[in-house]
What does this fold into?
Amino acid sequence: MVDISYYILLSAVLFTIGAVGVLVRRNPLIIFMSVELMLNAANLAFVSFASMHGSLDGQIFVFFVMTVAAAEVAVGLALIVQIFKSRHSINVDEMNSLKG
Amino acid sequence: MSIDLILFLILAVVAVATALGMLLSKNAVYSALFLVLNFAAIAVFYLLLGAPFIAISQVTVYAGAIMVLFLFVIMLLGAETLAPSKVLRGQGWAAFGLAVVLVAETVYLLVSRHAAVGVIARPDAFLNTMDSLREIGKALFIQYLLPFEVTSILLLVAMVGAIVLTRREKGG
It folds into this structure.
């Protein structure tokens, strides 16, 4: 018997760490990982609410979130590889032009 | 202190510590490995919450497929470490302050609405593993059939997009 507010608090802390990672880090790969961490925090909140209500809908949502995350990572990493090929650097501070 | 709470606290410490490790590592490979550990801890949380299907999906999709893709790209680009460049001064402190505000807001909401949140019952009280899998299958293929099929289109689009983006131009 664990109070659900513990789970929500943990989820909020993980989400915040992910948000700080997006804001602070300059490596786009680590920014992507931080986004994944934020998605995971949201998933944890979904599953804990689903468990509290004894319903499965939250788990189905988590399944869809995972699928979208997989698609996002595939396309995002392909973009990063292309940016690296054209600019030989992936520092986000140097990505300041639309045309390579 | 019940055994559930002790398990929760240990796993929460592991999850937060690995998330901080991901955030603070200089080397991107270490960040990725910390994140794998974090995903594993969250998978155990899912098991505690009575969601075995989601726990296994977490391990296979996130810790397996996505993080292997990340490690592959990190090593392919040789982007383990980047030279520090400061374009915005004081950005780190501003981000830290905003993070504290975000956590404080969440804690305030939790405290002020504590009556509206409840206690998680023992998960096996309402579903065992096989029943849970059966119910998820039913929900996925009856109630959520259209989103499920749209998801397959999304994955196809992502696959085609990734291939087109990384394709080598033939003959210039």
Observations:
- The mean pLDDT of chain A is 88.
- The longest strand of chain A covers residues 2-3.
- Chain A touches chain B through 69 residues (CB under 8 Å).
- Residues 12 and 41 of chain A are 7 Å apart (CA to CA).
